[in-house]
Amino acid sequence: MWIKLATFAFAAAIVAAGADIHGTIIIDRKLSRHNVTATVGMYQRGVAVELGADGETDPLAFERSHVAVYLEGGPKSPATEFPRVSIEQRDRRFVPDLVVIPAGATIAFPNFDPIFHNVFSLSKAKSFDLGNYREGQSRLVTFPTPGLVAVYCHLHSNMAASIVVSPSRWAERVDRDGIFSLKDIPAGTYTVVAWHKTAGTFRKTVIIGEKDTAVSFTLPYAEPSDEHIAHR
Amino acid sequence: MRFATRTFLSSCIPFAVLLAISFWAIRASVMNTVRDGLRASVRDNQVALANERARNEGRNRKLLAGIGENPSLKAGLQLLAAEGSANEQAHNTVQDQLSEICDSLNFDFIMVSGQRGAPLAAVVRYAGGFAPVNLSRLRPPEQGFFSVDGRLYEVTSVPINEADAQVATLTVGGIFDISQLGVPAVLMHKGAVIATQTRDLAPAQIEHALAGCSSAADCELRIQDQRYLSLPLGRPAGAGDDGYALRSLQNVDAASAPLQTVLRKLFLVAGFIALAAMLGITALSSRTIARPLVDVVKHLRLSAATGELPEFPENPGGAQEIRDLTQGFNNAAKAVRESRERLTRAYVQFVGSLAQALDARDAYTAGHSRRVSEYSCAIAKAMSLSEDDLEIIRVGGLLHDLGKIGISDLVLQKPGRLTPEETELIQQHPVIGKRILENVQGLEAYLGIVELHHENLDGTGYPHGLKGEDTPLHARIVKVADAYDAMTSDRPYRRGKSHADAIAVLRSAAGSEMDPLVVEAFALLGDQRKQLAALAGSQSLRSLSEAVGETTATLEVVEREQEAS
Q: Which residues in chain B are contacts of A115 at CB distance < 8 A?
């Protein structure tokens, strides 16, 4: 996905070369109650381990990597530039559980579990119900409207994924270190939006000139904007 | 048995029996009370537990009703309905959902069944995971116990409803662990023990004991001489009879055993103390009661040993009855003494009268009997005979010629020689004397002298011709004295011999007629007649009286009678 995004950024730079936004997401405490379940056999359910409790996964890195960043106010991406993105169902979970796409993109939902799944969403930006489908089958969904889409499974109430549909083509999932960069942005006034499932939506207005700009978000202390969208 | 012992036993035994019975009764009643109390508390406990189980059951059903509303499971059931239960993935999906529920709610068994009760999917927990169950033979009850692969589950069911219609049933449960019940219990299936907590009892014993118990009622039973209380546990109303019965089985005796042990010890100690105190008190009182009587008896024993009649002090102390007793003894002793004196007096008078009657017949032989008696006594004394022998010889000497009473005066007082017939008559007198005296009580001892004082040592005497020692010594002594007096007495037809002549005659007859020892003893005494002359008359009678123990007053009477004659 990162390669695809890079390609996408590179293409954009050709159209209108501009400055970059380099940003940092700072999270100093755990926000999710996400549990990591050891991946074992179909009926061999291991003991659920709270995130971080096993010492292997950095809970703050997990939180940082679950932040989506995008720009409001930029031009829309052309249809041919849409990346191919998929959300897989593996071990009764959506992998990945956070996807950032520009509006108009399509996401595939392939089932890799030996059991049925029934993926659906009731979100305003896009509501759909893919019905029951078995292992090896997949469904495609296009998201034309910017907004947040919460995805669930009828059969497994603990499965959940989030899709951030960006109005612009500058949209990115932050990496584990909290670093993001939106490249080749034409000069103008934009709003940088950072979204975290539990912390909410955070906005900062930036004026892009010829030079690169640095933006930093500290979650969850930044004042949530009025446009904070409560999902579901 | 001694009086003190008797008193002790007769007061101690009933006392001890009463004490033992009352202690036993009190102990039994206390034990029963304790046991009943414990049984009541055990029963309350078990009833509370049964109620608690029933309440928990209700609460669980409410909680489980929430699981029945699980939308994911409903979706899974819809999927299964849509795809058909033959679809393996759809089946797996539902099994997976069941595992999820089982895991999160910590059940050991979970099953969904369709509208007609046919199982759709079921999962059991095993070491560290879950496994699907072969549905073909799975028929768990809606509620109660059932067994899968040798493991016993206690399950309960909730409906899964969609729009007021029940589309399926969810049955969940855990492995039934009887030790988790918190009360000794036994699980029966169709009369057979499946699980029990009372390991010291064989299942067969429990089955046998519980066979008579109604499945729904309390039951008291007896196993191995121990009382058990059994109550049905957690049998919800309306549950179908699947053959399972869970009952408590509490040993009431064991529950009350520690208390009973303490009580038993307490009663034992108290009983022993009471018994010991009772024994002590009884022993003391029996001694106190018996002491005066024992004193009296001791006094009587002493009297018996000495031959004296008892004479008690006027007031020996002790009870009135003892005083009466000693007084009675004193009176009786006095009466006996007086009557003995009277008897002795009468006896002496009788003997004296007999001797007098004999002597009175023949003036020439007057005093003969008295003298023979005196001489005989002298010989006996010289021969160191006992006082008793002396007494016999004295009286025997007085009576020796009594038989002459039965012989005609013509023969007896004939001055000339006697014809052989007359001699024969005379010789009858020892036998006649014997016949007279043998019917008088108390004179038996003198019969020998009367009958045999004419026997000779060589067997030539009369009446029997006894030889040597066959004639008693008494008779032999009297014979010597008789012969001496006959020889030394004057007769109408001759003068009496001198002492020396008489002794010479006696010595010549010694060995043939006379006993030589007696003759020698008599000869050593010297001339007895002089001594007798000094003691003449009343003096000789006095010594006679002394011999028979007569008092002076009686003696005087006798003397007067004698003088009068």
A: 89, 92-93, 96
Domain that holds residue A208: 17-70+178-232
Contact (CB<8Å) B131/A154: no
Residues A120 and A198 in one domain: no
Dihedral, CA atoms, B30, B32, B36, B39, nearest 10 degrees?
110
Shortest alpha-carbon distance between residue A4 and chain B (Å): 35
Assess if residue A172 is contained within a domain: no
What's the pLDDT tens digit per position in B354-406? 777 777 776 666 688 888 888 888 888 888 888 888 888 888 888 888 888 88
Taking CA atoms, B565 is separated from B353, B356, B406, B410, in Å, by 11, 9, 21, 22
ipTM of the prediction: 0.75
Q: In total, how many domains does chain A have? A: 2
Instruction: Answer yes or no: do B83 and A115 touch at CB < 8 A.
Output: no
- Distance of alpha carbon B525 from alpha carbon B342, whole angstroms: 36
Are B89 and A44 in contact (CB < 8 Å)?
no
Query: CB distance B72–A42 less than 8 Å?
Result: no
CB–CB contact B79 A115 (8 Å): no
One domain for residues A98 and A145: yes
CA distances from B199 to B56, B151, B195, B203 (A): 27, 19, 10, 9
Closest CA to B111 of B167, B158, B177: B158
Separation CA A50–CA A149 (nearest Å): 26
Decide which of A142, A167, A192 is a domain's last residue.
Answer: A167
Does A122 contact chain B (CB < 8 Å)?
no
What domains sit in chain B, N to C, each tagged with a CATH number? 69-179 (3.30.450.20), 340-558 (1.10.3210.10)
| B46 CB-side CA count, 13 A | 25
Percent of chain B with pLDDT over 70: 88
3-state secondary structure of A199: coil
Q: CB of B97 within 8 A of CB of B72?
A: yes
